[in-house]
Amino acid sequence: MNQNKLKQLAVKYYIDDIPESSIPGSFLANFINRMEVAPDFVPEVTKDCLEKKQLRSLLKYACKQISLKEFSEAAIAEQSKRKLEADQIKKKQIKQAAINAEKNKKRKIINKILKKYDLSISFINHGDINKLKHMIEKLDHGSRLNQDEIAWLMVTRKGFHAGYYTQRLREKYHSNEAEYYSSKFIRTKNPWDIINASSHFRKCNQSKKANLILIKINTDKFKSKKIKSAFNTTFGGVKRDLRNLDEALSLGSQAHLLTPKDFRPCTLLGAVNIEIGNYDEGQSWYKKAIERGATEKSVDDDLRSIFMRLDKSKRKDLAIFLYENDPERYRWVKKYIQ
To answer: Whole-model pTM?
Structure first.
């Protein structure tokens, strides 16, 4: 039987809302066709199928239990109910599809900003996503984070040393801080603001920008030795970053003369001397830094950072020096000597 004829029969038996009824070879198509050809025989298996499909009025009519009029009234009611339920299901599906689309849109936005800062949504605890997203968006738009927010980012997750505080997030944080203190210095002329700005510029690999700002500042106006020393120390750090090591040594020496009890100029002079190969001199300055308040760990972290940036031959020379100087404290360099 062709499909048009099947559609006509489906309408006749009030099941045209069921797609199966118009598909040649399907159970319902075969059944309504048989109703036209052999209406007096309904196999038990057919009865079971009609019952499962909740076509009770059609089943009763086929079994001669109700009249055509009774069938029509009941079948119309059944069909109306099916259509209403189908409409409700469709509305729910449309609503759910819209919800899913919005979720996918938000997920893509979250993934995009997370990827920008070397984070993956699979890496993040589900309960942390909204809070982390809010913080990252603040940073991304140039806003500052407070110390509680930074501490939260740095909370160590199991198996991850730095929590969510990736290198790129760290750099963005320091970049925002640097811009904040630079702008503040323009308003206040407070030297501590530009010293803070310089420190943050260094931590986000923008020492060139710090240098351009610091070089224009007249330190003769600074009345406090502590301020002059801090300025020279941070400026010396900038020069060290830019590999202007002679200037870095000069600025570090000036800072030490101004505040001989401050460990920070000593740390700078220790680092620069190590970098140019004056190992004994560098260790002497590092020792002075520890005597003045620097922690041994901070000094060793500085040394390790310098060590890892050296080329292979210079790294081996420094490894030998450190190991001979203190084999227990610098046992981590032993593998680089062999």
So the answer is: 0.72
User: Distance between CA atoms of 285 and 274, rounded to whole angstroms?
Assistant: 10
Architecture of the domain spanning 222-338: Alpha Horseshoe (1.25)
For 168-216, how does the pLDDT look when each residue is reduced to its tens digit (9 = 90+)? 999 999 999 999 999 999 999 999 999 999 999 999 999 999 999 999 9
Angle (deg, nearest 10), helices 225-241 and 191-203: 20
- How many Å apart are CA 285 and CA 307, to the nearest integer? 17
Query: Are 302 and 311 contacting, i.e. CB atoms less than 8 angstroms apart?
Result: no
Alpha-carbon gap, residue 20 to 17, rounded angstroms: 9
Q: What is the DSSP string of 49-94?
A: HHHHTT-HHHHHHHTTSS-HHHHHHHHHHHHHHHHHHHHHHHHHHH
pLDDT of residue 185: 95
Q: In whole angstroms, give the CA distance from residue 158 to residue 236.
A: 39
Show Cβ contacts of residue 175 under 8 Å, excluding neighbours closer than 6 positions: 200, 201, 204, 206
Cα–Cα distance, 315 to 310 (Å, whole number) = 5
What pLDDT is attached to residue 158?
A: 55
CA 134 – CA 130 distance, rounded (Å): 6
| 239-291 pLDDT tens trace | 999 999 999 999 999 999 999 999 999 999 999 999 999 999 999 999 999 99
Tokens describing residue 242: 């830019």
Every domain of the chain and the residues it spans: 3-97, 117-217, 222-338
Region for 32 from its dihedrals, namely left if φ exceeds 0, alpha if ψ lies in -120 to 50, beta otherwise: alpha
Dihedral, 321, 324, 328, 330 alpha carbons, nearest 10: 10
Summary mean pLDDT of the chain: 92
Nearest to 212 by CA among 188, 182, 187: 182
Burial class (CB in 10 A: 0-12, 13-18, 19+), 309: exposed
Q: Is the pLDDT of residue 159 over 60?
A: no
The per-residue pLDDT for 39 is 75
